[in-house]
Specification:
The complex is a heterodimer of chains A (about 525) and B (about 475).
Chain A (H helix, E strand, L loop, with lengths): L1 H5 L8 H17 L6 H25 L9 E9 L4 E7 L1 H22 L6 H20 L3 H10 L1 H11 L4 H34 L6 H10 L6 H18 L8 H8 L2 H26 L1 H6 L1 H20 L4 H22 L2 H32 L15 H15 L5 H16 L1 H26 L16 H19 L2 H20 L4
Antiparallel strand pairs in A: 1-2
Helix pairs in contact in A: 2-3, 2-5, 3-4, 3-5, 4-5, 4-12, 4-16, 4-20, 4-21, 5-6, 5-7, 5-12, 6-8, 7-8, 8-10, 8-11, 9-12, 10-12, 11-12, 11-15, 12-15, 12-16, 14-15, 14-19, 15-16, 15-18, 15-19, 16-17, 16-18, 16-20, 16-21, 17-19, 17-20, 18-19, 18-20
Chain B lengths: L8 H6 L1 H19 L7 H15 L5 E3 L4 E3 L1 H27 L5 H19 L3 H19 L6 H32 L4 H4 L13 H18 L7 H8 L2 H7 L2 H17 L8 H21 L4 H22 L2 H26 L17 H4 L1 H15 L5 H15 L3 H27 L13 H19 L2 H16 L1
Antiparallel strand pairs in B: 1-2
Helix pairs in contact in B: 2-3, 2-5, 3-4, 3-5, 4-5, 4-11, 4-12, 4-15, 4-20, 4-21, 5-6, 5-12, 6-7, 7-9, 7-10, 9-12, 10-14, 11-15, 12-15, 13-14, 13-19, 14-15, 14-18, 14-19, 15-17, 15-18, 15-20, 15-21, 17-19, 17-20, 18-19, 18-20
Classes of the chains: A mainly alpha (about 525), B mainly alpha (about 475).
């Protein structure tokens, strides 16, 4: 075991292994540091997540989008060979783009945390690092059991992050988050076991590899009765749609977001929700394409309800975090709509929007956190006219909000435009309702800006409000830069994800979508 | 019958570890009676005995005592679990008992004897040997249950466990007698002849009655619903280091014997109505254990109900009864032993006198006061829930996978549903530990080196077997092969 570890090619063929476990290594080092030495703790956490970010950039630089399928950086080692369970890793453009998003957001969150007052700092940093391992592992694992392992590993650190460092109703929110997510995923667990059995019976090969399963599904090697396929699709889709979360499975999200500390909200909105849509693209749709096509109308309907409902409810919020949380419900519903629309344009839009939403919503939560850190309130009524007092925060917030609302020139526009354009090719009504969500998005985000930053500066407590500090700015700037760059020049991202989009589109087209 | 009276050296070698433990137990009692100042050395003596027994136990596979006793990879597996379980109870509990002045030599003697009984029980291929092993395992535990004899709860635990245990033993004997009356043998291999030609024997009421009686007695030891009612009271009243042993080793031994009996009678696996019956026990235990555990505020009672549910997951493997399932069952048992021991030992180490943490509220804020104990308890809760990357996940993965593979998807679904419910109480422990403010002074025993060693071993075991389960699975596989090839 140990010699195996030493023989790994950490920066070459096993780069993905390095990527996944670097954060955990950092967490282990943290465990042995004294909890009083704040700088050592922060330095270790920043070094671990910084190196992980560097490793992910290395992956992206070395990644060739034209590599077919998921064979780039493929790792293929036995884990539980008795049952064909492997330590199998690999990436495509979709995974690479989300890996970059994950490492960047985690790093930024940890940078920001250096400028915040946090109790029990050691545990906080360690939880984020373990969480990062879970997120990255989920994105690069190709064995479904391995994927499930990483998927569940995310639960416990997030439970701690919400439960220890959260707001007043943190215990309720943490438990609700845990139960909702796990309820979805245990069904997926049984579905995974069942699918492996189906595959073994049909092909004689015991494997849990999603690559081989996808191949079997595409070639029609497993002859599933439609009812069984629908149940399996349902079990997978449920696990992912809870995470997205699609209306009406979304109720855990506002609670979790509002109660989570700033960093927790950023990661939750920025990455965890994306893992839901990632799961749809990687597992649910390729493995059970017929059911995916059959249930598209239902899922589109739920998505459209989600788009409008999320936006509508966001508009009614008085709490800034809750508003941003409901905006996520709306935006992610649009992403699901784009995925199931199944045209190349819509699916690319969905993936671009996944990255874009991660950046802008991450930023919004981060900046709300900046205000909360100083005033300990998130009620919009407690602010008003603070633009003059916190000019830098205001500027950053406006850019993020406009990016989120889909202003042309910022990244939100690219994703939303592609989704709506792609959906238009399939169904005009869907597209029209989706566009309504976009308009409502502008309404509630502009209202938010207006209520918090402009208007009369009437609340006396705000006089002592200080602007964003160095650490917080350092954490926010890279994200702002990307919001602008990807808005003006999204071509590199589109090139990166192109082949992944084609794969999904072909799978769906083969089963009868236009 | 020839062979009963002549004992060969190979026969003695086969039960050498049991002999060693029994003799060492007697010596410990004598030592305590005549040289009391040696008391602090007992834990070390007991541990050395266990280590020696482990070395002696690695004897050649074969059948001994004219076919009444068998040694194989399977019995070796139980041997290692029993010795390990006893060692953990001593490592983690010795200091806690010493603090109360309850570390008499008898405690260690009783543990050693009980471990010997568990090992002998698993080695038995004759129903009478199994019975003797079961009694040798149980009687010391009745005494250990009443270890704090000045505490009413402890006496109650001892009395309840004794009365109900005696009843279960009687039922077992009744079953053995019935089978003997019908077949003229108590040897398991000869019972297999009963089933030749037919896959099931419900046609013969006497055999069915005998089998039901034997299975019931074993289900009692496993605390499967509806034979569970002793568990909460006994766990609650029994001293925690002893519960560490009680909640793990006897269950492992009983599970292996149950598999052995079923395998002997149904070489092709149990058919109707036995399989649905076992599945029914599994479902009942999972649902009942998990749902009742939700409402428990007493820590040990909660863990008793959790144990009932855990044995329910194990019973899924009995109902499946494929080779994969049994392999999974052994892995599950090993994981359960590590995990449960971790839970009870971290609770034991927080005791001082009678102020051992009793309710969930007593654990409040422990994460801040005694981080390592809280971390171990948290890890064990995560493993009991069945979340990766722990050994608890691997056990459930193998058992549920085998069930799905044999077409028993419904059982797997009940299993995961139960796991979901169990989040409610396992996570409550985590919540109380880390997210509540301390309400009482928590005793810190940082000088307890042995408990520290036990924690380190357990944490490493839970995580390493969770991350690299291959070795454990291979051992379990060899053990199950030994059963099937006989």
């Amino acid at each position: 075991m140990l010699t195996n570890l030493l023989n790994l090619d950490w920066t070459g063929a096993d780069l993905l292994t390095t990527l996944i476990f670097l954060p955990t290594l950092g967490a282990v080092v943290l465990a042995f540091l004294p909890k009083e030495s704040k700088w050592a703790l922060q330095g270790t956490a920043l070094a671990a997540s910084g190196l992980t970010l560097a490793a992910s950039i290395l992956v992206a630089l070395r990644f060739d989008p034209s590599t077919p399928g998921l064979t780039a950086f493929r790792v293929y080692r036995p884990w539980i060979p008795r049952f064909g369970i492997r330590y199998e890793l690999g990436v495509d453009g979709l995974a690479v783009s989300l890996v970059l998003l994950t490492t960047l957001l985690t790093f930024c969150v940890l940078v920001v945390s250096c400028g915040q007052h946090l109790s029990r700092l050691k545990g906080y940093l360690a939880a984020f690092l373990v969480l990062e391992t879970g997120m990255l592992g989920s994105l690069v694992a190709l064995d479904t059991i391995l994927f499930y392992v990483f998927w569940e590993v995310m639960l416990v650190p997030m439970y701690f992050i919400i439960g220890i460092w959260g707001g007043k109703r943190r215990i309720y929110a943490a438990m609700k988050f845990f139960l909702f997510t796990m309820a979805g995923s245990v069904l997926m667990f049984v579905a995974i076991l069942f699918t492996a059995n189906v595959h073994a019976k049909a092909t004689g090969i015991q494997t849990f590899s999603v690559v081989e399963w996808t191949r079997a599904a595409a070639s029609g090697a497993w002859h599933l009765p439609p009812g069984t396929e629908a149940l399996l699709f349902g079990a997978f889709a449920l696990a992912f749609l809870v995470k997205v979360p699609l209306w009406p499975l979304h109720t855990w999200l506002p609670d979790a977001h509002v109660e989570a500390p700033t960093g927790g909200s950023v990661i939750l909105a920025g990455v965890l929700l994306k893992l839901g849509t990632y799961g749809l693209l990687r597992f649910a749709i390729p493995l059970f394409p017929s059911s995916a096509v059959r249930y598209t109308p239902l899922l589109a309907l739920l998505s459209l309800i989600g788009v409008v409902y999320g936006a509508w409810v966001a508009f009614a919020q008085k709490d800034m975090k809750k508003l941003v949380a409901y905006s996520s419900v709306s935006h992610l519903a649009l992403v699901v709509l784009g995925i199931f629309a199944g045209t190349a344009m819509a699916v690319s839009g969905a993936i671009v929007q996944m990255v874009g939403h991660g950046l802008t919503t991450g930023l919004l939560f981060l900046l709300v956190g900046v205000l909360y850190e100083r005033r300990h309130t998130r009620e919009m009524a407690d602010y008003g006219g603070v633009a003059a007092r916190v000019p830098v925060t205001t500027t950053l917030f406006i850019i993020s909000a406009l990016g989120s609302a889909g202003l042309p020139g910022l990244n939100g526009f690219v994703g939303e435009f592609l989704i709506l354009g792609g959906v238009f090719q399939v169904n005009v009504v869907w597209s029209a309702v989706g566009a309504l969500g976009m308009i409502l998005g502008a309404v509630y985000l502009l209202t938010l800006i207006q209520k918090v930053f402009w208007g009369p500066d009437a609340v006396p407590e705000n006089r002592a409000l200080t602007d964003i500090n160095g650490w917080e700015l350092a954490g926010a700037l890279p994200l702002i830069v990307l919001v602008v760059v990807l808005g003006v020049y999204p071509a590199p991202l589109l090139r990166l994800i192109g082949p992944s989009v084609d794969v999904v589109v072909q799978i769906l087209r083969a089963k009868g979508i236009s | 019958m020839p062979g009963y009276l002549s004992v060969a050296s190979g026969d003695l070698a086969a039960v050498a570890p049991e002999i060693l433990l029994s003799v060492a137990g007697i010596l410990l009692i004598l030592l305590d009676a005549f040289a009391r100042p040696t008391r602090p050395s007992y834990p070390y003596l007991a541990l050395a005995t266990l280590a020696l027994a482990n070395v002696v136990g690695a004897s050649a596979p074969g059948t001994w005592f004219a076919g009444a006793v068998e040694t194989s990879a399977l019995t070796r597996f139980v041997e290692m679990l029993s010795l390990g379980g006893a060692a953990l109870a001593i490592l983690g509990g010795g200091a806690a008992l010493a603090r109360d002045g309850k570390n008499q030599g008898e405690f260690y003697a009783l543990l050693l004897w009980s471990a010997a009984g568990a090992m002998l029980m698993a080695k038995g291929t004759d129903l009478l040997v199994i019975f003797i092993g079961l009694e040798l395992m149980s009687v010391p535990l009745y005494v250990l249950a009443a270890w704090y004899r000045e505490l009413p709860a402890s006496v109650e635990a001892g009395m309840k466990y004794f009365l109900m245990g005696a009843f279960a033993s009687a039922i077992l004997l009744y079953g053995v007698a019935t089978l003997y009356g019908r077949t003229g043998t108590t040897r398991l291999p000869r019972l297999a002849g009963l089933a030749t030609g037919v896959t099931t024997i419900p046609f013969d009421p006497l055999v069915a009655i005998g089998l039901v009686a034997i299975l019931s007695a074993l289900a009692f030891k496993l605390a499967l619903v509806p034979f569970h009612s002793w568990a909460p009271d006994v766990y609650q009243g029994m001293t925690t280091p002893a519960v560490t042993f009680l909640s793990t080793v006897p269950k492992a031994a009983a599970a292996v014997v149950l598999v052995r009996v079923l395998h002997a009678v149904f070489p092709a696996g149990p058919g109707d109505p036995w399989r649905p019956l076992l599945g029914f026990l599994a479902i009942l235990s999972i649902l009942f254990g998990n749902i009742v555990a939700l409402s428990q505020r007493d820590l040990k009672r909660m863990l008793a109900y959790s144990g009932i549910a855990q044995m329910g997951y194990l019973a899924i493997a009995f109902a499946t009864f494929s080779r994969d399932a049994l392999e999974g069952a052994l892995v599950f048992l090993a994981g359960y032993l590590l995990t449960n021991a971790a839970a009870f030992l971290s609770i034991a180490s927080l005791s001082s006198g009678e102020t051992e943490p009793k309710t969930l509220a007593d654990l409040a804020g422990l994460g801040k006061r005694n981080g390592s104990a809280a971390a171990i308890l948290t890890l064990s809760m995560i493993s009991l829930t069945g979340l990766p990357p722990t050994v608890g996940f691997i056990g459930k993965l193998l058992v549920f996978r085998a069930a799905v593979d044999s077409g028993l998807v419904a059982l797997a679904l009940v299993g995961v549903a139960g796991s979901l419910v169990s989040v409610g109480y396992y996570l409550r422990v985590v919540y109380v530990l880390w997210m509540k403010e301390p309400t009482r002074e928590v005793p810190l025993h940082e000088d307890d080196v042995m408990a520290g060693a036990a924690w380190l071993l357990l944490a490493a075991g839970i995580l390493l077997f969770g991350l690299f389960p291959r070795g454990l699975i291979d051992v379990a596989r060899t053990a199950v092969q030994a059963l099937a090839l006989r």
